[in-house]
Amino acid sequence: MRVEAKMRKDRKTKKLAKRIEAGQIAVINHIDLDEVAARSLVEAKVRLVINADESISGRYPNAGPEILVDNGILIIDNIGKEAFDLLEENDTILVEDGKIFKNGLQVASGLLMDKEVVVQKIKDAYDNIGEELDRFIDNTIEYAKKEKGLILGDVPIPKMSTVYDERHVLVVVRGHNYKSDLQMMLSYIEEVKPILVGVDGGADALMEFGYTPDVVVGDMDSVSDEALKAAKEIVVHAYVDGRAPGLGRVENLGLKSVVMPSPGTSEDIAMLIAYEYNAKLIVALGTHSNMIDFLEKGRKGMASTFLVRLKIGAKLVDAKGVSTLYKSRLKFKYIIALILTALFPVLIIASLSPKAQTFMQLLQLKLKLLLNI
């Protein structure tokens, strides 16, 4: 394997994916590369990925690396943070069999990860998942005790201008299969006209499909300026102590917002706000709802999500994976049945026609002659 191309690098893969050009080499520093980050690199049509960290550490079976290699993008893995610092933005580098050359000198090397290597590493990760599950459960229980105020009314809900009362609310998160799931929900959006809530990058997902988010909720680290400017209302998710790193970005854009200090995730507070303002139904799309999802987000437990879902109960419909539910193809026997059903009234009408009756009698006579009946 020999690749020579210009490189771009960033410690935040999602930021890099927005500015890297097709055919360039992506240099990242991303342990346990997650699915959403990997898909963003695939969509950017990068030629090769060089990771300063381990793309699969073995803690759990993360999906990112397999998505890359399945799309023909190899990975040079774990080159180290020193080598990451040596490589500079827009350098043209040569990569050959896991070795990285700059100006004719080797500056780094790493493990060449192809399909075979990735599959084996994922298998090993599955073998180790028991220990990670134990830690995850312990952390979830521990944090649930600390964060129970989230559903007991200890966390104040900000005053909103959006009217949720008796409305459907669609909460969009840029999670697993979010694009295909959103595609399946288009008729629902057109017919029901729900309040559209984008959680950080989920706002951009809505805009990709031609919709303007009514509300953007998040810490503002992955939503675009365009989505923020288009949104009718912005809720900045702050730490429990009131610090809100994302507030400065919103203010620099000259936009107004409300701040909600809260433990947990931004998608949790998006659903909690909708519930507290008496939404009729909350539809969650692309949300994080299992251990792998949370480990990919770098969280050690899912206490807040468990608590919020416990509170909102029957008002929540989880649309994650809806595209998979309707992926099955129409079977041949159903097509035949559909054709016969459509022909039935035609045959009834035709049988009442004198010309059709004469034709049927002639056809019957010919069949008898052919079959010697």
UniProtKB/TrEMBL annotation:
Keyword Nuclease tagged: no
Keyword match Oxidoreductase: no
Domain Thiamin pyrophosphokinase catalytic positions: 193-233
Transmembrane segments: 334-353
Every SteA-like C-terminal domain range: 320-371
InterPro entries: Put_SteA-like (IPR047795), SteA-like_C (IPR022215), TPK_catalytic (IPR007371), TPK_catalytic_sf (IPR036759)
One Pfam family matching this protein: TPK_catalytic
Keywords: ATP-binding, Kinase, Membrane, Nucleotide-binding, Transferase, Transmembrane, Transmembrane helix
Gene3D superfamilies reported for this sequence: Thiamin pyrophosphokinase, catalytic domain
Protein's name in the database: Cytokinetic ring protein SteA
Gene name of this polypeptide: steA
